[in-house]
Amino acid sequence: MIRRSLFVAAFFVALFVPALPALADEPPALSGKPDASEAAFVRAMQADLTTRFATEADARRAGFVRYTNEDDTGAISYANRHWTSSDVHHPSQLWYDAHGALLGADYSLPKTGAVRPHAFGLQPGRWAAFDAHVHYVAIDPATGKKLYDKFVMPPQFRAGGGDPMHPTAATLVNLKLVPSANDVATIFLFPSIWDVSIWIKPNPNGAFADKNPLVTPSTH
Predict the structure, then answer these.
(1) Angle at 34 (CA atoms; ends 209, 212), nearest 5 degrees
(2) Furthest-apart CA pair in the chain: how many Å?
(3) DSSP SS3 for 15
(4) Closest Cα to residue 23, out of 34, 36, 9?
(5) Of 85, 127, 136, 145, which residue is the least packed, with the fewest Cβ within 10 Å?
(6) What are the sequence ranges of the domains in the chain?
(7) Whose CA is closest to 44, among 198, 219, 220?
(8) Overall pTM surpassing 0.85 (yes/no)
(9) Where are the alpha helices (DSSP H) in the chain?
(10) Half-sphere exposure of 20 (CA within 13 A, CB side)
(11) Could you give the 3-state DSSP secondary structure of residue 188?
(12) Calpha distance 128→114 (Å, rounded)
């Protein structure tokens, strides 16, 4: 679900801060509904992931970690920090609603050039490119509450004495983003990737649509 959440983030970050984990490019406009070739992959991933990851608890047990707040589509994103999807069984991200029910998944491939992938029978235009950045989940020292949607771009991370390829909480302390390394629940590199987002929950607008009219965000 990173494509949708980062389109929103891009607007606010462009106004208020100098850098963001943005789309390196925006894919061409395509119908949200899969074509005949794509439909086979969509059916397979929906059947497989619904069986294995029906709830947020299933994702956590499999090593997925939450790193976002609920976005304007009603999705909360979890990443397994493995960014090469080899087949339908290996999404890089799963998204759940506020009640822990599965909504969709992202598949990703390393971005090593400017040509979009020809993979999984999907149209190349389905793939969006993302720049590398370091994501982290902070802990509010006063309340113990986890704080999501936190990130640092590689130049800033290096300026704090850190290596984005091997990020540690100590660099966030150096950058004065957290008071202590103990106030970081999760930190990981989100590398430069090609990414595709697909709804698992049935969507009248199609599995590739930005929003699903059957999903109402809990904050709305």
Answers:
(1) 25
(2) 53
(3) helix
(4) 9
(5) 145
(6) 2-132+191-199, 133-188
(7) 198
(8) yes
(9) 2-16, 36-52, 56-61, 154-159, 169-174
(10) 19
(11) strand
(12) 11
